[in-house]
């Protein structure tokens, strides 16, 4: 491997190569994605990386990307493939004139990687607790041991008000479901070990908070979800994969399609988003 401390600097981050890991330091500039700024830096053990690629980018750039092993990073586990390419924390964009240098580091790195098999534990540290953010219907807080939801009277449903503010011990949980705030029906749902009869809609589930325009942004809610998921995994929960949602009442499906149509007509949902979500709702019948 290259000398310890060698650095490959890109537009929004710099990768520092060490004997057993890659230290990624993210910039804090105005053009840097907010998720990168929130993460600050990440130390990625070489055993956590399944592979590394070098490909042409856009507008005179090249892209180095580390592909992590499944289960190695709680942030990627929580994101479940929903991050946009520009917010991929393991994607380093460089000017094309650095291609030769990037190719050198990629070639040096490949023989030292951990292989493509799933990791049996998180190898990359989760964002540290305590953490909190404002969802549309609640303030969510996590102190490392418990998750708290404090409902807002302006956004919480009557079902949530009836249930009252919620506190969940990590030991009660078996996972976390994060649906990006950048899509329709974004939410954070805590998956409980005994979750029978959980409402299908996040706005009716006291173990969920819902997002909205300006509420629960990716750079706040995703690190929160990752921190909770890591705490659950550390306590040996058997399941961290979201279970299939129960089927909804046909009348509820019809109402939500009607609401989706109103958002579409108002220009708040694109044609593609409308078609995709409508198909998802119909599939739940």
Automatic annotation (TrEMBL):
Q: Which residues form the SHOCT domain?
A: 255-282
Instruction: Report the superkingdom from the record.
Output: Bacteria
Domain named DUF4429: which ranges?
A: 15-109, 140-228
Q: What is this protein called?
A: DUF4429 domain-containing protein
């Amino acid at each position: 491997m290259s000398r310890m401390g060698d650095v490959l600097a890109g537009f929004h981050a710099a990768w520092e190569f060490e004997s057993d890991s890659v230290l990624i330091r993210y910039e804090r500039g105005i053009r840097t994605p907010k998720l990168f700024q929130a993460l600050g830096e990440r130390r990625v053990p070489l055993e956590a990386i399944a592979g590394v690629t070098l490909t042409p980018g856009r507008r005179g750039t090249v892209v180095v990307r580390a592909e992590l092993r499944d289960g190695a990073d709680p942030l990627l586990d929580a994101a479940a493939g929903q991050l946009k390419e520009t917010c991929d924390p393991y994607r380093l964009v460089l000017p094309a004139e650095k291609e030769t240098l990037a190719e050198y580091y990629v070639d040096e790195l490949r023989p030292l990687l951990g292989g493509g098999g799933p990791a049996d534990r998180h190898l990359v540290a989760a964002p540290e607790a305590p953490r909190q953010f404002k969802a549309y219907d609640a303030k969510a807080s996590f102190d490392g041991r418990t998750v708290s939801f404090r409902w807002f009277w302006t956004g919480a449903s009557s079902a949530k008000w009836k249930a009252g503010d919620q506190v969940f011990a990590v030991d009660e949980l078996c996972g976390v479901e994060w649906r990006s705030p950048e899509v329709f029906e974004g939410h954070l749902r805590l998956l409980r070990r005994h979750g029978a009869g959980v409402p299908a809609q996040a706005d009716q589930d006291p173990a969920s908070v819902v997002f909205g325009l300006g509420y629960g942004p990716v750079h706040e809610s995703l690190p929160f979800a990752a921190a909770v998921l890591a705490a659950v995994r550390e306590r040996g929960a058997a399941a961290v994969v979201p279970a299939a949602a129960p089927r909804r009442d046909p009348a509820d499906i019809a109402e939500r399609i009607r609401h989706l149509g109103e958002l579409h007509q108002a220009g708040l949902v694109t044609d593609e988003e409308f078609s995709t979500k409508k198909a998802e709702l119909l599939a739940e019948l």
